[in-house]
From TrEMBL:
GO molecular function: D-ribulose-phosphate 3-epimerase activity; metal ion binding
Name the UniProt record assigns to this protein: Ribulose-phosphate 3-epimerase
Superkingdom of origin: Bacteria
NCBIfam families: PRK05581.1-4, rpe
SUPFAM superfamilies: Ribulose-phoshate binding barrel (SSF51366)
Pathway: Carbohydrate degradation
Catalysed reaction equations from the record: D-ribulose 5-phosphate = D-xylulose 5-phosphate
Organism ancestry: Bacteria, Bacillati, Bacillota, Bacilli, Lactobacillales
Organism: Lactiplantibacillus xiangfangensis
Amino acid sequence: MIKVAPSILSADFANLQRDVQLAEKAGADSIHIDVMDGQFVPNLSFGMKTVADLRPVTSLTLDCHLMIVEPEHFVEQFAKAGADLIGVHVESTRHIYHVLQLIKQAGAKAEVVVNPGTPLSMISEVLPLVDQVLIMTVNPGFGGQHFLEPMPAKIKALAAIKQEHGYDFDIQVDGGINATTVKQCYDAGATVAVAGSFVFDSSDPAARIQDIKVATN
Ligand code: DX5
Ligand code: ZN
């Protein structure tokens, strides 16, 4: 069964505590927090204070997906705010190896993220360092987009590399995930699914979290 990380980008920003606690009660495995700077992606969202304020209201892993340029300037602050896992895009920094080292030194788990158009060869050297790899299944920036159909092949290729080298990182997918697309990702080797609009644009978010789990059972 796949692990589920609801993305609060589609939650009610005036009721984040309520929505996070609802997700926790419904069996979510972590909370996905999308951080956007208006530069790396054409949207704005949360910052460190959101993470700090959510830290005491849930015992779930806080998974921060940084869509910001030069994340090296912020990873320590996110770790201090209470992020358990910090994801940085390989396209967002000149020094991906260094940023991942900084995340680990700060005491958080480290994740490298690849955009749909970025080949896996861009991250091969950092795979021994990471706890999780995030394969974007949409172009980052917004919730509610359509799943990109060629991405399961990329997940499969990463799963093969993982097996060949005996790596034990999780493979997360993010974008356009619903009860149908999650199955394709899971069958290809994904171990964690982010879901935003599928969960929070529903009148019954808890049922949607279960739908994703059941689809991969
Ligand atoms: C997009 C974000 C996603 C977003 C996913 O840039 O990284 O986490 O919340 O939203 P859905 O699940 O609606 O595609
Ligand atoms: Zn995300």
